Structure formats: structure tokens, C-alpha cells
## 1
Amino acid sequence: MADGGKKPDFTGPAPAEPAAGLAEVAARLVAGLWLVVACAVALFWPSDAGPVVLAAAVLAPAMAAWALAEVYKTQRQTLAGHAALQRALGSRPAEPAQKPAVTTVTDPVLERRLTEVLRALRQNEAALAALAEAGRAEPVLPPPPPAPAATPVDATGQVAGHVAEEEPSLGLDLGETPAGAPMSQAELIRALNFPDHEDDAEGFAALRVALDDPKWRQLLQAAQDILTLLSQDRVYMDDLALDLPRPELWRRFAAGERGRAVAGLGGVRDRTALVLAAERMRKDTIFRDAAHHFLRRFDQMIVAFEPEADDETLVELSGTRSTRAFMILARVAGIFG
């Protein structure tokens, strides 16, 4: 299970500090000119005047103008820092009025991995559907040919003068398909993580078993849908840092507790992923319906899964890609308070 252990860098290169404004430049020019003029005046200053008065007359206006320039500089740097912070938190520019219906994934490596996994899922579903249809179909036998009239038969019932031939087999007897063994919790966890790549035989085997089980098929399909929708916003489960929740929190969640009592289950705290999911949940009806469907199916799975799972198994469940998607959507939907 690829974990990554690091957050993706959404900030990009550090922006250059903006140039000084007109007011700041003017304040510094005034301070400099005042010092020049004051020095010239000091040459003709009466000798009986005190040095303190002379210093105050020369330095006070220059220091005031320079302080004003520093205020403008501080304001400029504060605005630049605020813009950089917004960039770091994943703020996005306002969307155009006509937003494309589907955003394509531009990362070639991740796009290829996702395409391979989805293609394999479709092939598995098609193969399972074909097997199920073949098991239900009954062979249609052709009507027997009419018996020839007045054909003599011997005592054994064979046509006289003919050698008995073995009746050819139609090859349609599929036999009974043996019932599969109950799916183990380890297989379900492997299926919920989905295959890592096209050569992940263990992952595809677990996924095939899960899709063949009506109890888990809808959960896997719902998880596949939501992972695909999140990837359209470049939110990939392998890139998200995870705080593994304590097993007792899963047990309390399975018992029906919600809100802050189980808030520790929201182990994915990536600011960008949460903001993008919340925005999509608010604006995209298809995404919202898929998210609620997935949350219901995952909730039902935990209720059935938890009683027979030990603490180590619950920790392994927490690290799957499907569970990370659940953590994001549950936080956005307010399940954790």
C-alpha cells in the first residue's frame, strides 16, 4: 500500500516581493531632501543656538518622513505575505462562468495508473456478469427428429442392420458452480485499497472476489466512483498524509456514536483536499449524490466489519484508499462535528 508520507506541494515557487509603491518612494525622497536642506541650513545656524534644538530641527522631520516610508513598506510586505499564505492554503481563483463538465487529469503517471485500474475493474465486472448469465441460462435442445416409419428393430431396441453409435454430447452441461468461500477481512481490506498497478495480482484477485460478493459489490463501486471524481480535482489518496485513528474510535463509530466523540477518525487533514471536496460537494450535484451514497455504504460496512476485527485489522483498514476518501467526505459532511 503506497503511502507517500508527505503532502503534495501546492504552493509552487515563492512569489517575488512587489515593488515599492509611489507613496513609499515619495516619503523616502522627502526624508532625504530634508536632510540635505537641513545640513545646508545648519551651516548658517546661529552659534548661540543650542545643539539640541539644532538636532531636533534637523532630524525630527526626516525621521518622521522615514517612519512613514517604513509603514508603507510594512503594509506592502504584509499584503505580499497574505497572498503567499492564501496560495499555500490552496486558494483557487474564481471559476469561469462556463466550467467544463469534466476536468482531465494531467499527471501522466497517475493518469495511467488510474486508467489501468478502472479498465481492469470494468473487465472483471464484465467477466463476472457473463459467468452469472451463463450459469442462469438453460440449454435449448433441438426437437427430436421424426422416427422413420416401419423401421425394424432387434431385441435390444437397436435398428436392425445398424451398429449402435454413441450419441454425441452437446457440450452444454456447465454443472453447478461451487459456492465461493466467505470473503476474509484481509481480502476486503486489499480490495478497498484497489490494485497498485496492472501487475498487482494480489490486488486484482481480492477485488475480483469482492465484486463477486453482493454484500461488498456496491461499496466497491461507490468507492471507485468517488475516487474517480476526486482525481478530477487532482486529489489523490496516495499523496495525503494520514493520522491513523485509534481502533476504539472505529468501534464507537460502529456502535452509532457521531460528532466530536469520534472526530479522531478524520485522519486526513490536508487543507487543500478538504477545501476542494467541500466546494465540489456544494456545487456539484453528481458529486454530492455519489459522496452520500459512498458514506452510507461505508457506514454499513463498518457495522458488519467491526465485531470480528481485531485492533490491528482496524488499523490496516484505516490506511486504505477507500477509507481515506471516507475520512475526507465525512469531515466535509459534518459527521465528525
Note: Residues 157 and 257 are 77 Å apart (CA to CA).
## 2
Amino acid sequence: MIDNIVVKVPATSANMGPGFDSLGIALDVWNEVRISKGPFSIKIDGIGEEELPKDSSNLVYKSFCKVFEEIDEIVPEVNLSCTNRIPLTRGMGSSSAALIGGLMSGNAMAGLPLSTSEILNIGAKIEKHPDNVAPALLGGVQIGIYDQEELITASVTFPEDLKVVLYVPNQIMPTDQARNILASEVAREDAVYNIGRSALLVQSLVTGDLHNLKYATQDMLHQPQRQKQFFPMKNIIKAAMEAGALGAFLSGAGSSILAFTKGREYTIGYEMADAAMKSGLDGDIIFTSPTSKGAYLEK
């Protein structure tokens, strides 16, 4: 049993345009979880330090406890310290980072009884879909599907020089709210539209032939409905593309917009922010890149 644990977990972006609930990518923005034996306490630094709970309802702590529930052992009393850099309720996987951070730290303190696959399955079951949890744990671009109760994931390679620009609005989009506006049924032509683009997205990333990303990141299953809730989205995506982005889409359930590029990052970020400002929206720009590294236990 390890007494002092440090776990680092990356931000993620789900859907990637057409891959609704099944595609996600890890980003080089990291949260850190530190756990040590001692009287129960929770400390939060960085994003969410004022609003996130510091009692037993904290998601990192609940996930930590989940490990001991799974192995039928008593939860040890711990000091929990979180350093958060992933924006909350902005479609960058903050809840998945909390889940994986808690599960991995609990598993480490328990002596590593759970495999990576078991941690992934527990996390995906809690999240109800794997598109954030899989890249948060495994890194890179991940495809996640269910065959009945079995979770299957597959990694997708991507060019090492691919860059990411994120416009992160001050406007939040809680995931539950963003999901509730989606239609329960979709038109066949919309399903076909997304199937083709999901396949093209994977092909573009694997081959490094990115000129089709402008088509491969388009969507008809969730972005049109979320556009009604988040009016500036279309204008910000359009601004990114006109500034030279290879592809752009709503990150997860939003409200962040992600653009892929191999250059002109600052121009793209400026134009995204300008389009948002013209729609009466303030926010921040994050310049980063995909990461092939998933959550890890710091030695």
C-alpha cells in the first residue's frame, strides 16, 4: 500500500464533431490529485477552488472511495489535495479527470488491485459513456463502444505536430442540460452524414492527410441542437476555419470550441475570440496540443 499518491490526468475533448459519445482526444492540460494518509480534509487550488465541494460529495473523493467499495475494504482516512487547470462545465472533461484521478489514486493506495481495464470500465459506467474517460485514462485519440455490457476501446494515431486552439467561453453548458435538448430520434440522412465523417476523421488522423478535416469534423447529430442553446457556436467555428484552422467543432457538450491546426495558432485564437466578442461573449483562449499520454501515477 502506497501512503503518498500523486496522479496527473489530462483534459479531454469528446465527440470531435461527428463521433458523438464514441470518439475523444486527450489534451495537454493537466489536473493533479495528491492523496496522503491523515485526518480527512480536501483542499482545492486553481479552477473551481471556490465552487467545488470540499466534503464527501467531492467527485475525486467519491471516486477514490469507489475503489475500496469494489474490493470490499474500508476506506482509509486521507488528506486530498487537487490542483485544477481544466475548466469546469466547458466540454473539456473536468468530470472525467476527477473520476480517473480519484479511481487511480484509490487504486494506488489500495496496492493496485484493479487493472487499467477495470478502472476504465468503472469510470465509463459512472460517466455513462466512454468518450472522455477513455482518452483521460489511456491518452491520445480513443474510440469507445459498447457491445452489450462489454466496453471496447481502440487507439487512433495522429500527427505529432498537430496543434489545438480552444476558445473557452465564460458561458457554462452543464452536460445534463446540453444532453436533454437532443432529439431521441435522428433522420437517416443525418446518421449517414455522421457515419461517413467519423470514418473520414479517423482516416485523416491515421494517415496524417489532414486536408479533409474541414469535412471530417462536421456534425448533424448534436451541434445543430446545441446551436439553439449556444448561439455564438456557428460564428466561432466559422471564424476558426476562415483563419486557417484544419477543422473545428464544439468540444464535448460545450461550451468550448476546439480547432485543429498546424500553424497560425494565434491568428485562429484571435479570430475565434473576436467572433465571440461580436456575439456578446467573453472567454479565454487556450493553446495546447493532443497528448498521447494518459493519466499516470507520478513516481
Note: Residues 188-207 form the longest helix (20 residues).
## 3
Amino acid sequence: MMNAEPLYAATHLDSLPLACPGRPRISARLKFVPEDFVVDEIPAYPFSGQGSHLLMWVEKRDVAAGDLLGRLAAELGIALPAIGTAGTKDRRAVTRQWISVPAECEDRLSWAHKIDGVRILEVTRHENKLRTGHLWGNRFSILMRDAPHEVIDALRETARLVAMRGFPNFFGMQRFGWSGDTLRTGLARLDPSTAGRDQQAQRHLGHFERRMTVSAIQSALFNRHLWLRMEKGLDSTVLSGDVLQKTETGGMFTSSETSVDQARLDAGEVRLTGPIWGTKTMSAKGDALDLEQAVLDEAGLAPSSFRIFAKLAEGTRRSLFVRPDDMRVEPDPDGIRLFFGLPKGCYATVLLREFILPESGRTVVEESE
């Protein structure tokens, strides 16, 4: 019988463990004005400068991602699916990202400058349309408004520790829907006892909504696994059968020599991973598999539970900890500003927990990916 309680618990960031639990945290406001939250997309590869797609480096201020794409499609006279992006970006922010459109739009680009809050800063070309995930990550500049300058040295020490150790790569609350609605819908699809009650509602879900409900389940299970591993003090320990990821190449392998791989983990050459369960997830072995299985057992699920989702839940692995790139803490006339880069799929809100007290940063309601 399915037990959803531990999954819902794993969606509440305030109750999840920190990388630096003993460090001081502050009260601060976030996103008071869009300029408090600046995001620059980092492409996955250089663009060739030629080809059948225009690549636009677009800045938007206080504009929702969906509104931006809809307005671009209308101004350029093209269908929405013809526009390509590597990831979504926050509304209450100043964000810069690459967007691709067909090359025949070139003589209409001046029309896009009419869109309020949007500027096209650069244009080039490439052979291919941008696809979701075609980015390395994002670089952030975040103002913790009203943060007192007296704590800057303490926050710099926290930043040093997080950069050295990494922070737990939990999924943020955005993945689960407000009040857990997306997760609740996904769990209803897994539970046969609710099939009749929810059958009609399920039929009205589009492909994207169906995929997000599955992702919410996978993300909650991942959070619960990472939480359990940290509770057991195994967040920096290689277990027999752990699936490790090579830092430089991203390739994965199963650990068979824990002492050798522990040295590589300590040196930053490899990373621990946790399961995003699905039909094709690379399975751990030995002690690591026992720990992962305990999470499924607790929830009353099994790897086979995801077969009903078919291609929506092929599964993968995800790094348990992330080390921010080039992290800095600097004074600002209005508070203290954090600078850092994160790989795609990582949540700035999760990192901010290491610096800001619960409740004080509630204005963060979106996330760049």
C-alpha cells in the first residue's frame, strides 16, 4: 500500500538538512525589485555563426517566461513551437538567455523591440534550434536586501564551506506545485484506489502536465533519499555499489572499490548520485541499493511502479551534492549580494537556505532552469 507521507515531507525545504547547519543565517528580502535577482544563462556550446536559425541574446525585466515567448511569436508572426529555448527563467528578475527562431524572421526582429520589458542584446546564427536542456547552467547575482554588513564575514565563511563541500541538491518546491498539487496529482495516478475518482481529471491533462506529475514523484523520492542519506551521515561516504559520476565527463559507473573511489570523491574527481526512478534508471548495487530500496519500501513503491508512465519516466541519476561555481559574497548599498553559478537543474532557492532564515525569503516563487 502506498504511503505518501514521507514524500510530502520531502517537499518542505525548511525541514530538510543543510550543508552547514551550524552556520549563522540572516533575515533578508528577496526580489523586492527585479534588479535584486539577475540571471545569465550559460550556453552548453558555442554557436557557429551560420545556419538556418537565429540565436537572440534576450534580456527581460519582470516578464514571465511564457509571456515572453507568446509575445515574440505574435510580433514575429510565427507559431509558438517554432521558438526554441534552453530553459525557463524567473519572472520577478532581470534575466538574459538565448532564444532561437527561424532565420526568415530576421527582417522582423525590429518588431520584437516593441515588447515592453524586453531587449535583444545580440544576434547570431546556428544550424540547430535550441532545445530544452541545451545549457550548462545559470549565473546568479542575488541581493539579500536589508542584510546587515556586520555579518558579511560570517556569510563569506559559509560560502567558502559550501564551495568546498557542496550543498544538498534537493529539488525546490516549484517542482511539486503550490501546496503539493502537482505531486498529489501524480500520486493519484499511481494509486489504483483513486483511479475511478480521478480518471476524468487525468484525461484532461496535457502531455506537459502529465510529465510534470511524474517528475514531481521522482523528485520527492530523490529528496527523501538524499535526506535519509544525510541523516545516516553517509552524504560524503562511498558505499559499496554506489553509482558515481565523473566530474569532468559526466560518465557514470558503479563503485566496486570503495577505498579507491572514496579518495576520488574527496578529491572532487567523482560525485555521489541518487536515483531519479524510472524504467531505465541505472541501478545501484550492494549497500547503496539497500539504502535506495529502503526509500521505495517506505513509500510502498517499487521500480516497476513507474511502468505505467512508459516514456514519461525513463529515469536517470542526479548528483547528491553540487559545488557552486565562482561563489562570492559582496557588500551592496541595499544589503549583501551573492554571486554564483549553478549547473542546469539546480535550484538557487536551495542554495539560499544556507544563508537566509526560513520565511524571510518567501518572495522567491520561481526558478531558473
Note: Residues 26 and 272 are 30 Å apart (CA to CA).
